[in-house]
Design goal:
Blueprint: E1 6-9, E2 15-19, E3 24-29, E4 34-42, E5 47-52, E6 58-63, E7 67-73, E8 80-87, E9 96-100, E10 111-115, E11 120-126, E12 133-140, E13 150-152, E14 163-166, E15 172-177, E16 185-190, E17 196-201, E18 207-212, E19 217-221
Antiparallel strand pairs: 1-2, 2-3, 3-4, 5-6, 6-7, 7-8, 9-10, 10-11, 11-12, 13-14, 14-15, 15-16, 17-18, 18-19
Length: 225
């Protein structure tokens, strides 16, 4: 799997969080370029994914050994405190983590969306202030080796249901309604000729960009009703 450094900006204007191939998560002072004292921690594998909760007090980090760690983050000092560890699946790289403070009007629990090379997209509920995760449900996709990523739809709070979007090794972009008990798959976009690795919406959800392993980027426009 291609290795890349992961960077995450916190709500603080002078700090950012970086994960690397040496299994470390560091809080960096962006003014000086130096690591913040007390702002480093080690994972069990190479860091592939990072995500904050909305307030910026909880940081989750995923590694290539299949673990997700939660950290308490002190925004005033930059200190990281390791809180919880979840083994999603031993040896399955965690390639994407996306946090949402609440999924929809019907499901107001904080949630985490995770890709982990299991041929599934995983949705977890955040059950406490230390970032403990409880599996809520999973959705079938094709992902066994590529660093596929997923996202929550940005406007999900303004409509019934709640959608997530993910890439897949079947060369498609998949949409799932996380609140549907049955037939959660609501859309599939076809047009890529290689595994779809990443997806991203613009702010009003009128455009979706998807990229694949061959380097192609497709911008999809939402149909006007």
């Amino acid at each position: 799997m291609p290795l890349q450094a992961c960077t995450m900006f916190s709500t603080s204007t002078w700090m950012r969080q970086v994960g690397n191939a040496k299994q470390n998560v560091h809080v960096m002072n962006i003014s000086t370029g130096k690591k913040v004292k007390g702002g480093s921690s080690k994972l069990t594998g190479r860091v592939l994914a990072l995500s904050f909760d909305a307030p910026g007090r909880l940081l989750w980090a995923g590694d290539d050994r299949g673990s997700v760690f939660s950290f308490l983050f002190d925004m005033a000092t930059g200190k990281l405190t390791k809180a919880k560890r979840l083994v999603v699946h031993e040896g399955s790289p965690v390639t994407s983590i996306s946090a949402r403070s609440w999924v929809s009007r019907e499901a107001r629990d904080p949630s985490l969306l995770i890709n982990a090379c299991l041929n599934k997209l995983l949705l977890y509920r955040v059950v406490d202030n230390e970032g403990t995760l409880q599996l809520k449900r999973s959705f079938p996709i094709e992902q066994s080796s590529h660093p596929v990523r997923s996202i929550f739809c940005p406007l999900m709070s303004f409509r019934q249901g709640a959608c997530v979007v993910t890439g897949s090794e079947d060369m498609c972009v998949h949409f799932f309604d996380v609140e549907r008990a049955a037939k959660a798959a609501v859309n599939k976009l076809q047009g890529h000729s290689a595994p779809v690795l990443d997806v991203s919406f613009n702010c009003d959800e009128s455009l979706l960009a998807s990229s694949d392993a061959s380097g192609m980027v497709i911008v999809w426009r939402r149909e006007q009703k």
